[in-house]
Specification:
CATH class of the largest domain: Alpha Beta
Distance between the termini: 22 Å
Structural class: alpha+beta
Oligomer: single chain
Number of helices: 13
Bound molecules: coenzyme A
Shape: globular
Largest sheet: 12 strands, mixed
CATH architecture of the largest domain: 3-Layer(aba) Sandwich
Strand order of the largest sheet: 1-2-3-4-5-12-6-11-10-9-8-7
Number of strands: 17
Number of domains: 3
Radius of gyration: 23 Å
């Protein structure tokens, strides 16, 4: 998309609403280092992080992705230079089913100082981000959240979930295939700076729910530079028979006693089934390790089926992760492909107005779809009445329409419509976002 996200002015509606309360809502001038540092300190404070020292500030300033940052300043506060609220947004690509992606507005750094909470400041920030995305023609907004209670009211819903897996390697004997390539233990830079990101880019469109990312979001997967944690990071890479990088695992091992060691898998990316098998086998066969934990993983891990004792591979948590908000129904739904042809009328309700309307999703035999406003009767089509949040939930194929009908969240306009919609919206690849932002 050929536009500069920094050129459009601050959202006038929210600026007016906040000005009525003597608060200034403005874009951050990232060229003003002192202002930038105050903004960064406000974000860190918002998430109860430590005060950033000079190195921390420098790292954040130089390595953030290209974000449009905004803040709210209170001239009457004791520290008027530090914003009392922060927000940021940037343009990325969200992978959708069908090895395609859709432009997405990623929202982050939403904080409001404890002294100013629950006065609709966050509402003004979030709604301004949604209007910003819409004005730039971006069809969906996405975020990862601290609390699952905040964003439904703005039309977001969980569209891709994550799991924590806990494995007892002393019981989980490898029973899967033997990969023909080799695993190498390498210095972090070997993968982080040489080929790892290219691998991610090569894979990205085959993983619904992933986003395009680089900068700090990429580098911190290997430990935030300068932190004690970064020194403990180990990296194993898998090269295929011709020496091509096909996957890597980032992990660290901590030892409590003489023999008991625990491994934490930070990140594992595999472009091939061989790479997946070889890396998991490597992790499961680490000597002295009696516990292996993997967080933020896909909710269906093939490794469960690759050990002699599947009870040694336990999913200890599963939760919402990527939240999606549809802003433009036509562009969003036309961006993906579908598993089964047919016509489905979608009556979409949206309290904020962006996506409200009655649409016909017309899916061709090849799985591509056209979406148009449909004023006519239901006729022979299937039909669903749903809120924009529910549309976001089913968008990537991560939630079942039938389940949401049973939950009273989606209403069938014709019996059997949920089953038909499930056949179309399902994704052969379970949606997964491998990072938080
Ligand atoms: C979450 C946070 C940004 C909310 O800011 P705020 O200015 O107090 O929120 P608002 O007053 O605009 O509230 C808007 C709505 O969200 C609700 N809400 C706000 N925070 C909530 C929370 N933590 N849990 C549940 N609901 C919440 C409010 O009740 C209000 O609901 P309503 O419009 O239906 O009445 C703020 O508490 C904060 O900075 N928290 C720590 C950082 C954080 O978690 N940020 C979110 C990152 S994903």
């Amino acid at each position: 998309m050929g536009f500069d996200i920094h050129k459009s002015p601050i959202d006038a509606t929210s600026a007016r609403a906040l000005a009525d309360r003597d608060l200034r809502f403005d874009l951050l001038d990232t060229g003003d280092i002192a202002a930038y540092d105050s903004w960064l300190q406000a974000v860190t404070r918002g998430f109860h992080g430590p005060v950033l020292d000079a190195d921390g500030l420098e790292l954040h300033r130089t390595d953030l992705v290209d974000e449009r940052m905004s803040g709210v300043w209170d001239a009457a506060s004791a520290d008027p230079a530090t914003p009392i609220a922060t927000a940021s947004g940037w343009l990325t690509e969200l992978t959708v089913p069908g090895t395609r992606s859709v432009p997405a507005w990623a929202i982050s750094s939403i904080t409001v100082a404890p002294t100013h909470r629950r006065r609709t400041i966050a509402r003004n920030l979030i709604e301004s981000e949604l209007r910003q995305a819409q004005s730039l023609g971006v069809p969906v907004a996405i975020l990862t959240v601290t609390e699952a209670t905040i964003y439904a009211r703005f039309g977001f819903a969980p569209s891709a979930r994550i799991a924590t897996w806990k494995i007892d390697p002393t019981r989980a004997r490898w029973n899967g295939p033997t990969a023909p390539g080799r695993v190498h233990i390498v210095p972090t830079e070997n993968v982080r700076d040489n080929g790892g990101h290219e691998l991610l880019e090569r894979l990205r469109l085959s993983l619904p729910g992933q986003i395009q990312f680089d900068g700090m979001l990429w580098r911190r997967l290997f430990g935030t530079p300068g932190t004690p944690e970064a020194k403990e990071i180990r990296v194993a890479r898998y090269d295929d028979e011709v020496g091509q990088l096909q996957g890597f695992a980032v992990y660290r091992v901590t030892r409590a006693g003489h023999l008991d060691a625990s491994a934490e898998l930070g990140y594992l990316l595999a472009a091939t089934d061989d790479a997946y098998s070889a890396l998991w086998r490597y992790l499961l066969e680490l000597d002295l390790v009696t516990s292996l934990t993997a967080e933020m993983r896909v909710i269906e891990e093939p490794v469960y089926w690759q050990v002699t004792d599947p009870r040694a591979v336990v999913k200890t948590a599963e939760s919402d992760h990527l939240w999606t908000r549809i802003l433009d129904v036509k562009a969003a739904l036309e961006a993906r492909t579908y598993s089964s042809p047919g016509g489905i009328i979608l009556e979409v309700d949206d309290a904020l107005g962006f996506a409200a309307g009655r649409y016909l999703l017309d899916i061709a035999a090849d799985g591509t779809a056209s979406v148009n406003v449909h004023a006519g009767p239901l006729g022979d089509f299937d039909g669903l009445a749903l809120g924009v949040a529910e549309l976001g939930a089913i968008y990537l194929g991560g939630a079942s329409v039938s389940t949401l009908v049973r939950a009273g969240r989606i209403r069938e306009l014709r019996a059997g419509a949920a089953e038909a919609a499930d056949a179309s919206f399902r994704s052969a690849v379970t949606p997964w976002l491998s990072i938080w932002f």
